[in-house]
Design brief:
With 543 residues, the protein is an alpha/beta fold. It is built from 14 helices and 20 strands. Strands 1, 2, 3, 4, 5, 6, 7, 8 and 9 form a 9-stranded mixed β-sheet that branches. A 4-stranded antiparallel β-sheet has the order 10-11-12-13, covered by helices on one side. The protein has a 4-stranded antiparallel β-sheet with strand order 17-16-19-20.
Length: 543
């Protein structure tokens, strides 16, 4: 308790101290003149490493198997949350959602919990890392999910829609492209439940914390069937890359946004909610068909992509590069994860994991592990578990989900893959418990974990008077004039704002990062966005 109070006091002191680094400072020295490979992210949703190359032969995934045979399989990769929006917030910024105030699921549905709908307001230095790539000359596209919890900054992407594609880029530009495949999302288990199954429910493996019934087998089989569909979509994207002659200069990533979209997987900070597959293929097929067992966190993805692109890694990013010219000297010792409000229901749990032990701190141990979330009740598997619970037919292992939480949990994941035996009270593991506990406390302080602030108070801090702040209008300053062109500098009075500009005959917004040349008799249109704020009004200036 003393440790918890100490942590809380330190967090209140540090919670909104901003880093001195700014986007403009980073933009001044982004690119070191070396090669810029294309980078492709193929992502899917709600899927654990339930694939052949990770040891699960339930279904064939020929396209991902081929990618793995040509690339590197990363076996110890973890999301920062067991649910999508906080995880995506961390992925796109290289910062923990708990640092940015984007940790509650979802900020845009606060009304479910009696709060206002809001957008998180990250520290002023936080940016979508695609902005740094754009400033370095990359064409950045997203097709098409964002879910960042701080809005959808118009400066983050050259294209952001279901039509976004590297094929739309100007000739000669390197690209960073994201394609998100939704077919493995938990909702697709009930959306497609009446379609024919290609996976035999009798041949799937039921985990020990599930009852053994036909309904449960059927929904797990549907989960695997959706993985097969997802694999075929991966194949289409990779085929397009090859058709365009780009597979020989493109680094390809494949991963999911968190663990499986099944009850007691998704939304949890146990390994099954955090562990994700990651495959990376390099153009030269280096280390093809090998495995990497270093611990990797989602906050490491942003600095790693910048490192691959030979772009400077901003100091405010909390992750470390595991690839490229700026790769960290040592792999990380721990990964950290958080669980907070899930839709209607509040909670606060934190997790730390190393290569052997998994530590969980439950800050509301009076609550049960299970949360009665209406969204999840659309799944037959969930209702089947509840039916058996009501009839007292659950095994002790399955029934544990409905028990109140232990304040602390510790699992030896080398001996206990399913995390069934809590060792927190075992004297033989006291040393490991203390070590993991200290790692957790140090992390909460160093990352200024905002989960200790009640969400209602946090919203008031970010949105004073419960009104969303508005980004100030950007201004233009003429630096020089030569012939028919003016050199113009842009600025925004709102600290930390990103500025976009376009000429009035253009549709796409360009990201401002250095003075621009404006032809005579041209209308320059400006707008700015501070993440979490309202976007500024557009300003039209004639030259």
């Amino acid at each position: 308790m003393i440790e918890l109070k100490r942590t809380f006091c330190l967090l209140l002191i540090f919670v909104f101290i901003a880093s001195a680094s700014t986007f403009s400072a980073c933009a001044q020295a982004l690119h070191n003149g070396t090669s810029q490979p294309n980078i492709l992210w193929i992502t899917c949703e709600d899927m654990s490493p339930d694939l052949q190359m990770f040891g699960d032969a339930t279904v064939a995934t020929p396209n991902l198997s081929r990618l793995a045979s040509e690339g590197i399989r990363y076996n110890q990769v973890y999301s920062t949350s067991g649910v999508c929006a906080p995880s995506r917030s961390a992925l796109i910024t290289g910062m923990y959602a708990t640092t940015m105030g984007t940790h509650n699921m979802r900020t845009g549905s606060g009304g479910r919990a009696g709060l206002i709908n809001y957008e998180g307001v990250p520290p002023q230095e936080a940016k979508c890392f695609s902005e740094y790539l754009r400033a370095a000359g990359y064409y950045c596209t997203n097709n098409a999910k964002t879910d960042y919890q701080f809005g959808n900054p118009f400066t983050a992407w050259d294209e952001n829609s279901n039509k976004a594609h590297w094929r739309n880029r100007p000739s000669g530009k390197p690209f960073f492209a994201v394609f998100n495949i939704e077919r493995t999302h938990e909702s697709q288990i009930w959306v497609h439940k009446n379609q024919p199954l290609r996976v035999d429910p009798n041949k799937i493996k039921v985990p020990p914390y599930y009852p053994e019934t036909p309904v449960i087998r059927r929904d797990i089989a549907r989960y695997y069937d959706n993985i097969m569909v997802m694999d075929s979509i991966v194949g289409i994207i990779l085929k397009q890359l090859k058709e365009d002659g780009l597979d020989n200069n493109t680094v390809v990533f494949f991963f999911s946004d968190h663990g499986a979209g099944l009850p007691w997987y998704k939304r949890e900070v146990h390994g099954r909610g955090l562990h994700v597959p990651l495959i990376i293929r390099f153009p030269d097929k280096r280390n093809a068909s090998t495995a990497n067992n270093d611990l990797i966190s989602f906050i490491d993805f942003a600095p790693s992509v910048l490192s691959l692109a030979n772009v400077a890694i901003p100091k405010h990013m909390q992750g470390q590069a595991f690839l490229g010219t700026r790769r960290a000297n040592q792999p990380r010792l721990y990964i950290h994860a958080a669980r907070d409000r899930m839709d209607e229901l509040n909670d606060m749990t934190r997790a730390v994991r190393d290569l052997r032990f998994h530590y969980i701190r439950n800050y509301q141990p009076d609550k049960t592990y299970y949360q009665d979330l209406p969204y999840r009740l659309q799944m037959d598997l969930m209702n089947e578990i509840l039916r058996l619970k009501q009839q007292n037919k659950l095994s002790p292992v399955a029934n544990r989900w409905f028990e109140t939480k232990a304040p602390e949990e510790l699992y030896d994941i080398q001996q206990d893959t399913y995390e069934l035996k809590n060792l927190a009270n075992d004297p033989a593991y006291k040393k490991e418990l203390n070590r993991m506990r200290e790692a957790h406390i140090e992390w909460t302080v160093n990352t200024k974990d905002k989960g200790y602030i009640p969400e209602k108070d946090l919203i008031e801090i970010m949105w004073p008077g419960l009104q969303q702040p508005e980004t100030a209008e950007p201004v233009a300053e003429m630096l020089s004039k030569s012939g028919d062109k003016s050199m113009v500098k842009l600025n925004c009075p709102t600290t930390g704002a990103s500025i976009g500009y376009r000429f009035d005959n253009d549709e796409k917004w360009q990201l401002y990062h250095q003075p621009i040349s404006v032809p005579k008799n041209t209308h320059l249109v400006l707008s700015a966005i501070r993440y979490g704020y309202k976007r500024s009004k557009e300003v039209k200036i004639s030259f």
